[in-house]
Design brief:
alpha+beta, two-stranded antiparallel ribbon
Length: about 50
């Protein structure tokens, strides 16, 4: 997972625009990393 996050941050994050959304859910730590349009979405999500 760390390799994926590094690749996104170093290569792809610069190319994201307001039309893109990338969200990485780290279930074990309850941590969400957002890129693109997803940074503007701070609403709660419920998963079953």
């Amino acid at each position: 997972m760390d390799n994926v996050k590094i690749k996104i941050e170093t290569i792809y994050a610069k190319q994201f625009s307001g039309a893109d959304s990338v969200m990485i859910f780290d279930v074990n730590n309850s941590n969400i990393i957002k890129y693109g349009n997803a940074i503007h979405r701070d609403t709660d999500a419920v998963y079953f």
